[in-house]
């Protein structure tokens, strides 16, 4: 039993690693029906470029909203299989920061997320959402590879 965890947050971006993280979190949740599973997707707003103003820029955002809605519907269907309480969220902003804030605001006990697999100098120079969350989250972070 996972008696130490009552609320698990899964950071989801529809990548293969985030799908694995979701499966892991679902398996952990199944151990106790009292565990609440929250899935958060973070979209990063594009910086407008000269050619992106007006209609093209709005069309891009509308397409992004439609994609998020479709992914969210897919997630909700998969989560229906769990006896646990589940919720999905879509937020916009810097992924690392938004995940940490979401975890804090929802008083999560555990974060489950995928890793990009970067290491060494690549991670130092490029940064990594999972690395940021591990460093800044107030609760344990389970990284799935």
TrEMBL record:
Gene3D superfamilies: HUPs. Keywords: Coiled coil. Residues 5-145 form the UspA domain. Residues 58-85 form a coiled coil. The keyword Transferase does not apply. InterPro entries: Rossmann-like_a/b/a_fold (IPR014729), Universal_stress_UspA (IPR006015), UspA (IPR006016). It holds the Pfam family Usp. Belongs to the universal stress protein A family. This is Universal stress protein. The lineage of its organism: Bacteria, Bacillati, Bacillota, Bacilli, Bacillales.
